[in-house]
Amino acid sequence: MGWTNRKFLLIGIFLLILINEFTLKIFDKNPPLSDRTILAARYIDLLIIFFALTAKRTILDWKYSLLKISNFIIKYLMPSIIVIILLDISLSLVGLGYPTHYKHENLQRFPHPTDSFRGKPNALDHNEYGFRGKFEDTKNTINIAMFGGSTTYLGNPPIIQIIREELLEEKINVNVFNFGSISSNHSQHTHRLLDFSDRINMDIVIFYGGWNEVVNYTNYDSRPGYPYNFFYRNELNPGLQSLIRYSSIFGTIDILTNGAISGLKTIRETTILSDPDWSDKLILNYWRDLKIANEITTKIVKPNYCKKTSFISIIQPGKVPKRAEGAWAKLLKSSNSFDYNWIHQNLYNMKDKVKFSDLSHLEQDSRKLMAHEFLKIIKKILLSNCR
């Protein structure tokens, strides 16, 4: 062994003494070290060991190293990358991997600090807040706000707009506010309600849902109260996010392994698969959200025309998949036993009277039927509180 190798070995040993997780713990002013710092220190130590042992080839004989690297790139790396890219494109053309959902992710589920996501402001037919329709807050007018997921957001027109048109035909001055957004749940809607509690006076607040609060948790992020895509957007590093979103190969692997790359598999293992009380916690969270929303409605929100602001919660109809039947049954059962002090209506029994475009979304004619059911409840409130 020549002096040159010994020199780099001594330098490597010195650096290892200075840079390692044990030495860092001694100098850390705010212990303990984070997992990320410990992992970074270990990677740096491996690099130090590698260069200390191979310095003659990797550092001193740089021409030799450069030639070897160039040959490797030209003969092996570039052809492999081209083959992988072509294979990835081919697999995406036959429908493998995850769909990119550009419209959903960038326009209809735009990040927001208050409620995780909502529509992108001033895009599509969204207003400056990211919701559909104009928000007109005029005096001597009944203001009705509706919070929900895609079943509130979608429609031409949406359910809340149908309600407005029906009331206007009956010469009732009314403004409506569609606070619906794709894939959102009542935990998010509660934060959304609080966000607008001092911006808009509301006479009636409606929370419409059940699907995103129960069924979605059996298919996406299963932690009660979490947004459906929290594991992906907030916990997965950007590199893996891009691979899963844009690579059909990585997307397919993640699908086949039930979320091994995205982290969804681990989340399910610690909730649905290992916690016998998981579905009970899900239902408790549903009522907790509604209870808090009712408190905000009755104690913070101010009415615009009526004597007081009324809160309504409604369970939507849908074709519940087998994986969610147990949790959904608990929701319906709790609807008959929970001690709530607001107006609650279970419209799940409408499932045989309406037509669906998929498992949860209604066809437009059926939205009109649902709007008429809403109107029955709203008119009772108008008669008692808004005369």
Pick out its properties.
single chain; 387 residues; alpha/beta; Rossmann fold; 2 domains; five-stranded parallel β-sheet; two-stranded antiparallel sheet; 17 helices; 7 strands; elongated
Termini separation: 98 Å
Q: So, the CATH homologous superfamily of the largest domain?
A: SGNH hydrolase
Unreliable stretches: none
- The figure for the number of domains is 2
Overall SS class = alpha/beta
Write the layout of secondary structure elements.
Layout: H1 3-18, H2 21-27, H3 35-53, H4 55-60, H5 62-93, H6 102-108, E1 110-112, E2 116-118, E3 142-148, H7 150-153, H8 159-169, E4 174-178, H9 186-196, E5 204-209, H10 211-214, H11 230-233, H12 238-246, H13 248-256, H14 264-270, H15 278-299, E6 310-315, H16 325-337, E7 343-346, H17 364-385
Parallel strand pairs: 3-4, 3-5, 5-6, 6-7
Antiparallel strand pairs: 1-2
Helix pairs in contact: 1-3, 8-17, 9-15, 12-13, 15-16
Descriptive overview:
The chain is elongated. It is built from 17 helices and seven strands. The protein is α/β, with parallel strands linked by helices and 387 residues long. Helices cover 52% and strands 9% of the residues. The mean pLDDT is 90. Strands 4-3-5-6-7 form a five-stranded parallel sheet, with helices on both faces. A two-stranded antiparallel sheet has the order 1-2. The chain folds into two domains: 3-93, no CATH class; 109-385, SGNH hydrolase (Rossmann fold, 3-Layer(aba) Sandwich). The longest helix has 32 residues, at 62-93.
Quickly describe the structure.
The chain is an alpha/beta fold and 387 residues long. It has 17 helices and seven strands. The protein has two domains: 91 residues, no CATH class; 277 residues, SGNH hydrolase (Rossmann fold, 3-Layer(aba) Sandwich).
